[in-house]
Write a structure and sequence with these properties.
Length: about 200
């Protein structure tokens, strides 16, 4: 058991670790890789399929939801179900986005050749430039977020926070690239506080 002082010190350490990693994205993300991904997503005529294992899978669900908000039809693909028939989701012109810190997850490695055979394009986000996922993807974004906030380096914390920030940046850039304005949001987001704000 730790004291309240130690609890708060741990929280401050996490805040600093994660905020420093997000702030460093401006220096660590390759501008050409980022812009290429934005143009690919903004111009696609297909769907966006986002996948990942574990915490990356949880991030993938959120990323798909935000793409739907900016007029890019998207869904999450469960990597455990994919080789049991759900590969059939992938169609020509679709973009399959793989989130994998290590770039070594077997499910992700196996997905790439099937996605290409089905006519999809593969975009990976990983921290491992030497991985099969990085090498075999059509498009790639390399992250370098440093140590996790978790002192044991077991919890995906800082790395997934950086992934969220990266795809928030991509989604907003896609929105601006495609000239999506508030009139669009009035149509697709009439509920909740946003809908109420737009009706005022």
């Amino acid at each position: 058991m730790i004291s309240r002082e130690e609890i708060y010190a741990s929280a401050l350490s996490t805040f600093k670790n994660e905020s420093d990693a997000v702030a460093a994205l401006k220096d660590t993300v390759d501008p050409d890789q980022l812009c290429e991904a934005v143009e690919l997503i903004a111009n696609t005529k297909g769907h966006i399929i986002v996948t990942g294992c574990g915490t990356s899978g949880a991030a993938a669900k959120k990323i798909a939801q935000v793409f739907n908000c900016v007029d890019r039809a998207a869904c999450y693909l469960n990597p455990a179900d994919a080789p049991h028939g759900d590969y059939g989701l992938i169609r020509p012109d679709d973009i399959v986005i793989i989130i994998s810190k290590s770039g070594k997850s077997r499910e992700m490695v196996d997905l790439i050749p099937v996605a290409k055979l089905r006519g999809g394009k593969v975009l990976c986000v990983t921290e491992n430039a030497d991985s099969v996922v990085y090498r075999d993807s059509d498009y790639r974004i390399l992250l370098n977020t440093g140590p996790e906030a978790c002192p044991y380096q077991c919890l995906s914390s800082t790395s997934v926070t950086a992934v969220f920030a990266l795809f928030d940046a991509i989604s907003i850039a896609v929105m601006l690239y495609n000239s999506i304005d508030q009139n669009y949001f009035k149509m697709v987001h009439p509920g909740g506080g946003i809908g109420e704000m737009l009706r005022d």
